[in-house]
Write a structure and sequence with these properties.
Blueprint: H1 2-21, H2 48-74, H3 88-112, H4 115-145, H5 154-186, H6 194-219, H7 221-233
Amino acid sequence: MTVVLVFVLAVMAVAGWWLARQRLMSRPWLEVGPVTAHPETEAPLTHPAKIGLGVFLVVVGALFALFISAYFMRMAYADWQPAPVPRLLWLNTGMLVLASAALQCGVHAAHKGQLTNLRLALLAGGLASLAFLGGQLLAWRDLAAQGYYATDNPAVSFFYLLTAMHGLHIVGGLVALGRTNLRAWRTVRTEGLTLSTELCAMYWHVLLVVWFVLFSVLMGWAAEFIDICRRLLS
C-alpha cells in the first residue's frame, strides 16, 4: 500500500507542478488596475493542444503507476519467480533514446525554419521507434523460446503486460508522427509543422521517462531501491 501512495503522490506532484506553470489557477477577475500591472494574470501562452496532451500524459503516468504498484504488491507472494530480462532491452532502450533525441532536434529545426533537417529528424524518430517496437517483439520471442510464458509465471505475465502497454502507447504516437511526417514531405514551409512536432516530441519524452521506470522495475533496480528506503525508515 505504501508503494501505491508513493507513486500516486509522485504523479500528483508532477501534474500539479506542470499545471501551475500553465497559469491555470490564476484569477484575473479579482485583480484591480491596468492589465499591464498584473502580467501574471494574462492567459497562458501554452497552446491548448499542449495542455490537452499534458493532461492525457498525466493520466498515462497514473495508469503506469498503478501497474507498477500492482507489480510490487504481487512480488510479495510465494509463487513469484523473477524471470530473466532479455539483453535486447538495452538496445531497445537506446533506440527509444535516439527517437526522443531526434524529435527534439526536429523541434529546433522547425523553430529555425530548417525544413530538410526537420524532415530527417521526423523520419529518424519514426524509424527508431519502429526499431524499438521490433526489438520488443524479438525480446518476447526470445523469452518464449526459453520457455517463459505468461500463463506459467506471474513475473513473466507482468513483463508482457508492462511492455505491451508501453508498446501500444508508442503505436498510438506513431499514428500522429506518421501524419506529421507526411505533412513535412508535402510542404515547403515549416510554420505549420512546429506545433505538431512539439507535441510528438513531448509525447516521446514522457514515454521515454516511463520506459526508464519500467526498465528499472523489470531489471530489479527499483525493488532494491525500495528495500533500501524501507531499511532506512525502519
